[in-house]
Design goal:
heterodimer, A: mainly alpha, ABC transporter involved in vitamin B12 uptake, BtuC, two-stranded antiparallel ribbon, disordered N terminus, B: six-stranded mixed beta sheet, four-stranded antiparallel beta sheet, 10 helices, globular
Chain lengths: ~325, ~260
């Protein structure tokens, strides 16, 4: 068991391949039908969005309310490109272009706004997202078809692409966090004055986190556009940014695995609650209140899910059971 | 040979002169004390030297490797990179991070691997991370914190938190170390241990140390020279024995304490 824990890299790879194969088999045998698959797509998009926002808000401590804005840039860029070049390469190119474009906007927006702290940054990023939305709706309507939205975007997303981009994004983001640069970002959240005094260029790292977060939000947006083949600006409103923030807070600020778990959990809950359309939002809201009262640090806190943590939990569980017997 | 020259440093907050016309000189390898009553402006001097505040006027010059560099107006992280590290009066550790991470963050400025290595964890990433880990463990061993490397900084006892903060400053590989009341809140035994530790660090890390401290037993014992600050101005400078007998200092600051003793 101890040896198993040490080879975490190989373990991760095996877990990923197993997950991929199982879902692929379930899709081929039609146990996962189109309806369940669309939920799966939503889950994966939310995982990427939450993990990337967590990098900005949970790890670097910069409160951003504009994540839907970056998502919309990825979505529209990819949609416009795939509508012109309706091939797999058009899709991949569109996705990469969308992510890069979102990152560039993140850089331009981040440079002036990341001087602000806390609530001020939140308001500024909120304003930025609204500006992007209005640009897509009113100013760039030759390209985006304005409020009516873009229709008939070619669908290229299948399980393989979805899995590749989701697992890839999560892996790259956690790689970033587990590096010296990632630790520098975390130190800014912990104490910006101390971190600057220890040689960390806080502006540089804040912008890096912001740009990286925007890049992956762009990927999430591109996946959205390519799967749901219909885009309208209002989808990327304030509420969308809040939805992403809720996943981050619920999963735990500063825990990538928390974001993944929360994204899956929330999708499952809202799928089950669809049976009660009138009470759906009420139950959802009540759930958030209850979780925040009893577990304000979120599901995972700032810990990551790992084999050693699971071992610790099962160990505690085993001891409790043993004591009872 | 001076390593740091402070010339007529002044900082005013609105109408208040927190520091006015402070001139100091640190020679290489010296251990200098900075004392003064509460509110005299000692920590403000530190904040000016480390770039947390920008001086209203005056200059700070670092003489290193036969070069002269002006430090006033630079950002804190640049000043840290040039070789000035500090601790804080009210401990400012990264409380929710482990002891090891606290030290590793201080080494971030030396990291050479770029964003690509960061995202894909290439060979240069693992090589540098391993080297960094080794260096951190060496440092932690010195202060006997190595067995606590995975503990959160906030869970350390108070004395060890003070030690860790000094260690974190050392990890930035400084030539000048600024200690802001390192003995605050320590009992006499801990203070004695700290006194010894500071002396040891200075010799083994080839450091010049500037120290703010209220504990006179510590200051008088280890400092070679002392600057006395009152109302933002240097009112005296000299060896501990000169300071002890300086009339202005006794009036401003030591008077009560010596009277009591």
């Amino acid at each position: 068991m101890d040896k198993l824990i040490k080879n975490t890299g190989i373990n991760k790879l095996i877990a990923l391949i197993v997950t991929f194969v199982i879902v692929q088999v379930l899709i081929s045998t039609n146990i996962i039908n189109d309806y369940i698959f669309s939920t799966l797509v939503t889950i994966c998009i939310n995982i990427i969005l939450a993990a990337s926002l967590n990098l900005i808000t949970g790890f670097t401590g910069q409160f951003s309310l504009g994540h839907a804005g970056f998502m919309s840039i990825g979505a529209y860029t990819c949609a416009i490109i795939t509508l012109r070049y309706s091939t797999v390469w058009g899709f991949v190119g569109g996705l990469v272009a969308g992510a890069v474009f979102a990152a560039m906007v993140g850089f331009l927006v981040g440079l002036p706004t990341l001087r602000l702290k806390g609530d001020y940054l939140a308001i500024a990023t909120l304003g930025m997202a609204e500006i992007i939305k209005i640009l897509f709706r009113n100013v760039l309507d030759d390209l985006t078809n304005g409020a009516a939205g873009l229709r008939g975007i070619p669908q290229f997303i299948n399980w393989a692409w979805l899995f590749l981009f989701t697992a890839g994004s999560v892996l790259l983001i956690s790689n970033f966090i587990n590096s010296s640069h990632g630790r520098a970002c975390i130190s800014i959240r912990e104490d910006e004055i101390a971190s600057e005094a220890m040689g960390v260029n806080s502006t540089k790292y804040k912008v890096t986190a912001f740009v990286t977060g925007a890049f992956f939000a762009g990927i999430a947006g591109a996946i959205y556009a390519s799967y749901f083949y219909y885009l309208k600006p209002d989808y990327f409103a304030f509420k969308k940014s809040i939805d992403i923030l809720v996943i981050v807070v619920l999963g735990g600020m500063g825990s990538i695995s928390g974001s993944v778990i929360a994204a899956i959990l929330l999708a499952l809950i809202s799928t089950y609650l669809q049976a009660f359309p009138e009470l759906n939002m009420v139950i959802n809201g009540a759930l958030f209140v209850i979780i925040m009262i009893f577990r304000p640090q979120g599901i995972m806190g700032s810990k990551e899910l790992s084999l050693s943590l699971i071992k610790k939990w099962t160990g505690q569980f085993g001891r409790k059971n043993g004591g009872a017997a | 040979m001076p390593i740091l020259t402070v010339n007529k440093l002044t900082k005013s907050f609105g109408g208040l002169m927190a520091v006015s016309n402070v001139s100091m000189e640190l020679k290489k390898g010296e251990l200098v004390g900075l004392i003064g009553p509460n509110g005299a402006g000692k920590t403000t001097v530190f904040n000016l030297l480390t770039g947390i505040y920008q001086p209203t006027s005056g200059t700070v010059t670092l003489h290193r490797d036969k070069k002269e560099e002006q430090l006033q107006g630079l950002k804190p992280y640049t000043i840290c990179k040039k070789g000035i590290a500090r601790t804080f009066q009210n401990i400012r550790l990264f409380k929710d991070l482990t002891v090891l991470d606290n030290v590793r963050i201080a080494m971030n400025k030396n990291v050479k691997y770029g964003l690509f290595s960061t995202f894909f964890h290439t060979r240069s990433y693992s090589d540098e991370e391993k080297e960094m880990l080794d260096k951190c463990m060496q440092l932690l061993k010195i202060l006997k914190l190595d067995h606590k490397k995975d503990e959160l900084a906030k869970n350390l006892p108070y004395g060890e938190q003070r030690h860790l903060e000094i260690l974190r400053a050392l990890a930035t590989n400084p030539c000048i170390l600024l200690l802001d009341e390192p003995a605050a809140g320590m009992n006499p035994a801990e203070t004695a241990q700290l006194t010894e530790m500071i002396g040891w660090i200075r010799e083994n890390f080839d450091l010049t140390i500037l120290l703010i401290e209220h504990d006179m037993s510590l200051v008088m014992k280890i400092c070679e020279r002392i600057y006395v600050l009152d109302y933002g101005m240097v009112i005296a400078e000299g060896t501990p024995s000169e300071i002890k007998s300086n009339k202005r200092v006794i009036e401003a600051y030591l008077g009560e304490e010596m009277g009591n003793a």
